[in-house]
Amino acid sequence: MSSEEKPVPSLRPRPVVDRLPRYAAGKPASAVDGLDAFKLASNENPLPPLPEVLAAIAEQAAINRYPDSLATPLREKLGEYLGVPADDVVTGAGSLGALVQILSAFAGQNDDGRPDEVIYAWRSFEAYPICVQTTGAAPVPVPVLGDGRHDLDAMIAAITDQTKVIILCTPNNPTGPALTRAEVEGFLARVPSHILLVLDEAYTEFVRDPETVNGIDLYRNYPNVVVLRTLSKAHGLANLRVGYSVSQPHITESLRLVATPFAVSTLAQDAAVVSLENIDKVLARVEELVQERNRVVAALKEQGWDFPETQGNFVWLPLGERSPEFAAAADSQALSVRAFGTEGVRVSIGEVEANTRFLEIAKEFAG
Ligand SMILES: *Cc1c(COP(=O)(O)O)cnc(C)c1O
Q1: Which residues carry this modification: N6-(pyridoxal phosphate)lysine (predicted)?
Q2: 61-278 CATH fold
Q3: pLDDT 10s digits, 280-289
Q4: Ligand 1: lining residues by beta carbon, under 6 Å
């Protein structure tokens, strides 16, 4: 190597790009002789797509043409399913795509150089800090309480003149608890109406607590509420990238202006429509997973674990320093789970055999 100084490249990304946390996607499990490998690391639906959905995809041959950018038939179907005007629905490439629209339109760096602020709970969905900082806005993470619930009082206390958006994740990924309707309405009463409140309800179909907030019931009465939903989890369409937001027209108008054109392919739109036409089958599968969740939760309690209540398709084990050790033990049994630093481990509810194997590993770490 020459001792010459390397020239500083003149082409540099915006300084914020170097500061972004890395999104650590869930990995497949290591191969282990004699064991089927299972991935419980990305909260995916373990069940294969409905045959009706596969047939719809197989029939869609016109991929030389751009998709309908407004996804009109899908929005009409969603409007019917949710009981809302189709115009209140804006689709995106996954609900992450829909979240990026919201942040691009409502938060960022301003002409005076001062960044807007976006408040969210932490730990929560790993994508939030990346999406928020990319817009140029300043992230304001507010630690969750010991039981994994949002600290709503602390989130109110974090509001400043710069606050533009607050994200509530219910059920919260990765800790599990959902917010109640009373909690969210009480919160909204304290949030100035010029601040946008995003309710991320990616796991809404898995919720069984009747007190849980339903953003679709709320947004009509609150002009500053946007609800995020996805077909990635309950519908098992994670790979097709289809999600959406629901909000009042004065918001959707801005979201459509910033949306990436053609973000949702015709394959994804058709699959989503057919999945919604077969919603009874989708919900029956969700119920199977909820039954599995109940079995896993009961068994963990039996083993002596103390962990947050979960309303999603995953459980959170607050393993602290032992988190990486637990993930390694699972991997040695051909099971991939998600360790978040030295905070805890999130394990998705998957195939029955995978859940049973997870419980066997958990038993070794219990108490
Ligand atoms: C999985 C997940 C999403 C969904 O992402 P898509 O882009 O729709 O696949 C959104 N929010 C949370 C909290 C999630 O866990």
Answers
A1: 233
A2: Aspartate Aminotransferase; domain 2 (3.40.640)
A3: 999 999 999 9
A4: 43, 94-96, 125, 169, 173, 200, 202, 230, 232-233, 238, 243
